[in-house]
Structure formats: structure tokens, C-alpha cells
Specification:
This protein is α+β, with helices and mostly antiparallel strands. It has eleven helices and five strands.
């Protein structure tokens, strides 16, 4: 299929609802039930990111963030080692109990198999588009049909990526969150992402350990995080984690 034809459905789709509506015929054409778009990063060995758009209900996106599934989603892990599209199936995803929990939740949303497209956006940052189906890949005919359409799906993923890049919604949310966290809170979050304990952070910032813990209570509240690792993951996905040795320099 010509790239121009695959891009046509996105023209005029200026919000999530219209984009979802225009995507449904494309999913049906290739035999999928849903599609999701992720951005992930890896800093100091910690994987973070977010499901930035999906055709699935908002409740699933909320569950995905609450459970921090981005770090263990078996569809995403291989994208950090490869760029070629690949097929995946729930039954082939290992025995890790965290992955099994994700798969159980995902299957209730009709996610059992599909095709994963990886687009390396910048160093240490990956864009992933997943085309998902509620049925498995047991049929050789189904595998062959999907393999035959990998080129078309890649073009479709690129067209979707370009459309979502043109939407300023994500960037506005990042700026709002960045203003919510104080400079001291951002420094605490950055140092925690590097593996420092509250005591270590306190020594680095010349404050008491209890003050660091106070900042983290505020951080978790502001980022709607259940614990410190989730706060770090959300901070990374929102661009709130510093990349150099600047933490504490201005304090």
C-alpha cells in the first residue's frame, strides 16, 4: 500500500476522539482490535515512559500507569534491542509473575497477540506502536498474513507518530507538571533516579534526611505515584529527571 494512502486517515484528526475514530477502519483492515502508542526511556538502568495514546478505554490507560506496567510490558522490552517489526503472543512471554499479572490485565482488554513497531526517536528514547488482537497466533495462516503486512504496518505507525508529534497536548502537560514540582523536589527526584537513598540525598543537598522524605511525600502526591520507584518512572516520562550533575548546584 502506498504511504500516502496510509497517511490519509490522519488528515484532519485534531483530537484523540477523531484520531481513534479514523483509526478503527485501519485496524479492521489488518485484523486488529486495538492500537497503542508508547514513549519510553532508560536512564541509569531504570525504564520509564508512558502510554501516550490508545484506542482502548481510558480506564486501561489509567491502570497501565498505576501499575507501572511500562517497565515490564513484554511488548516493549524487545524494542530496546531491535528496530525490526516483530510478532508477539501472550503465551510466549515467560514465567515472571509481574509479566503474568500484566498479561492477565491485558487479556481482559482484548490484548493477546499482535505486531510491535519500534521507532527510535532519539538516543535512549524509544517510540513504540503496538497493533493488538484478542486472538492468538496459533494459526500459521494468521502469522503469514501479519508477516505479509509488516511493511504497511510500519508505514502506518510512522504516519501515526508524525500525527501525534504535531499535537501539543503532551508538551503542555509536561510544562504544567514541571511547574508543579519545586526545584528542590526535582533535585531529590533526580538524585533518587541515580540510586541515592534519602540519607545520601540529604548529604548531597545539605539538608536533613527527614526533609528529603518530606519532599518525596510531596512529589508522590503531585505525580500521583504510589511509591518512590513509580515517582521516578513518572518523573522520567515527564522529563523531570536531570541528566547531568546539576542536582543541588543551584541550592
Amino acid at each position: 500500500m502506498h504511504a500516502r494512502m496510509l497517511a490519509l486517515p490522519f488528515e484532519g484528526s485534531r483530537d484523540a476522539r477523531s484520531l481513534n475514530r479514523m483509526m478503527q477502519p485501519q485496524l479492521a483492515r489488518f485484523g486488529f482490535d486495538s492500537l497503542s502508542y508508547f514513549v519510553t526511556t532508560q536512564v541509569a538502568g531504570v525504564v520509564a515512559g508512558d502510554m501516550l495514546w490508545t484506542t482502548l478505554p481510558r480506564a486501561w490507560a489509567a491502570c497501565y500507569r498505576e501499575q507501572a506496567y511500562v517497565a515490564i510490558d513484554p511488548r516493549l522490552a524487545p524494542t530496546r534491542r531491535r528496530i525490526a517489526p516483530f510478532l508477539w503472543e501472550a503465551g510466549e512471554c515467560g514465567d515472571d509473575w509481574r509479566v503474568r499479572r500484566f498479561l492477565a490485565d491485558a487479556q481482559r482488554q482484548g490484548i493477546a497477540s499482535g505486531v510491535v513497531i519500534s521507532l527510535h526517536d532519539s538516543p535512549g528514547r524509544w517510540v513504540t506502536v503496538t497493533f493488538d488482537s484478542r486472538v492468538g497466533l496459533a494459526s500459521p495462516a494468521r502469522r503469514e498474513a501479519l508477516a505479509a503486512h509488516l511493511g504497511d504496518l510500519l508505514l502506518l505507525a510512522i504516519a501515526l507518530h508524525e500525527r501525534l508529534l504535531a499535537r501539543p497536548v503532551t508538551h503542555r502537560r509536561h510544562r504544567r507538571t514541571e511547574r508543579v514540582l519545586t526545584i528542590r523536589e526535582r533535585d531529590c527526584l533526580t538524585l533518587a533516579a541515580r540510586g541515592l537513598s534519602s540519607g545520601d540525598i540529604g548529604a548531597r543537598l545539605s539538608v536533613a534526611e527527614r526533609t528529603v522524605n518530606f519532599h518525596f511525600r510531596n512529589i508522590k502526591t503531585k505525580l500521583s505515584a504510589l511509591n518512590r520507584p513509580e515517582a521516578i518512572a513518572r518523573g522520567m516520562s515527564l522529563g523531570l529527571i536531570g541528566t547531568g550533575d546539576e542536582a543541588g548546584d543551584t541550592l
